[in-house]
């Protein structure tokens, strides 16, 4: 690598990100994925009251009847995201946050196991959210990669 170190995605468990309680006094627990100045938030589907949240340890407190189940569910979701990140890095060398948007297992089901790196790169270039200047730069890079092969 050109002197830069590879940065992994940071996953953090967040409670009540919007600082708003539902009518029943509960708020959502989410998982925040942060990488390269961007964040994506993923719902755990778990809603609890503020007095049941341990902000320091980022988990459901022991005083909640579903504490063990909820904390295990949160842990498993974070573990799934980390596993998918590692699989993408091993396969493609990168893992953009947008690839985590699918629920665990969906990304793997959508991925074509016969897809080569250059085919993956070509798909990435065609993404509509890329600016034309970025697409041109990527096309040049792809051309050099093909020549190098």
How is this structure best described in words?
The structure is a single chain. With 149 residues, the protein is of the alpha+beta class. It has four helices and five strands. A three-stranded antiparallel beta sheet has the order 1-2-3, covered by helices on one side. β4 and β5 form a beta hairpin. The longest helix has 26 residues. The radius of gyration is 19 Å and the shape is elongated. The N terminus is likely disordered.
Short account of what is shown:
The chain is α+β, with helices and mostly antiparallel strands.
How far apart, in Å, are the first and last alpha carbons?
18 Å
Number of helices: 4
Q: What proportion of the residues is helical, as a percent range?
A: 25-40%
How much of the residues is beta strand, in percent? Answer: 15-25%
* Rg, nearest Å: 19 Å
Poorly predicted runs are: 1-5, 104-109
Strand order of the largest sheet: 1-2-3
Average pLDDT, all residues: 82
What's the order of the H and E elements? EEEEEHHHH
Broad structural category: alpha+beta
What's the β-strand tally?
5
């Amino acid at each position: 690598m050109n002197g830069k170190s590879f940065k992994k995605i940071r996953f953090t468990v967040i409670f009540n990100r919007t600082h708003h309680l539902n009518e029943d006094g509960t708020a959502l627990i989410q998982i925040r994925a942060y990488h390269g100045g961007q964040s994506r938030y993923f719902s755990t589907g778990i809603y609890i009251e503020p007095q049941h949240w341990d902000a320091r340890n980022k988990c459901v407190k022991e005083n909640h009847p579903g504490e063990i189940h909820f904390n295990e569910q949160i842990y498993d979701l974070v573990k799934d995201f980390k596993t998918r990140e590692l699989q993408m890095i091993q396969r493609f060398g990168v893992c953009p946050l947008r690839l985590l948007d699918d629920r665990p297992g969906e990304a793997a089901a959508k991925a074509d196991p016969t897809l080569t790196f250059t085919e993956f790169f070509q798909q990435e270039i065609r993404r509509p959210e890329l600016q034309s200047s970025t697409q041109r730069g990527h096309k040049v890079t792809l051309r050099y990669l093909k020549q190098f092969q």
